[in-house]
Amino acid sequence: MIGQRVTRQRVAIAELLEDVDEFRSAQQIHQMLQQRGQEIGLATVYRTLNAMAEQGHLEVFLQPTGEHTYLRCEPRAEHHHHLVCRTCGRTVDVAAPELEQLVEALAASHDFTDVEHSLDFLGTCRDCARA
């Protein structure tokens, strides 16, 4: 975590996020830390998650409720998106080369360069749809 002091709290949060496969809210992460016996304040969890996201260590997904959720993604050479189950939070990384081509074409048609974007898809996974 470049730019941040390495503290017990930051290490505990980073270690927990290595074990999480779905987007989770700060409150959920805080609760999971407590279940692991880590006494870390909720404000510290929020600050650390925001700092990690700003540094590119976490992906942030804005839930329809307006709540930010976080996921540690493996560094990839190519840009990717997510399919997120609105019921259980299951998250699948997806490459979408057609979408990337569309973004490039939109940018070019409006004389923009160096365009960044974030697009995730919210739906219901097969297991939740069966339930």
UniProtKB/TrEMBL annotation:
Top-level lineage group:
Bacteria
Q: Which InterPro entries did the record assign?
A: FUR, Fur_C, WH-like_DNA-bd_sf, WH_DNA-bd_sf
- Record-linked SUPFAM superfamilies: Winged helix' DNA-binding domain
The answer to keyword Transcription applying to this record is: yes
Give the location in the cell. Cytoplasm
Q: Which Gene3D superfamilies match?
A: 3.30.1490.190, Winged helix-like DNA-binding domain superfamily/Winged helix DNA-binding domain
**Annotated keywords:** Cytoplasm, DNA-binding, Metal-binding, Repressor, Transcription, Transcription regulation, Zinc
Mind telling me which Pfam families this protein's record contains? FUR
Q: Which family does it belong to?
A: Belongs to the Fur family.
Under the subunit heading, UniProt states: Homodimer.
Report what the protein is called: Transcriptional repressor
Instruction: Please tell me the species this chain comes from.
Output: Cellulomonas avistercoris
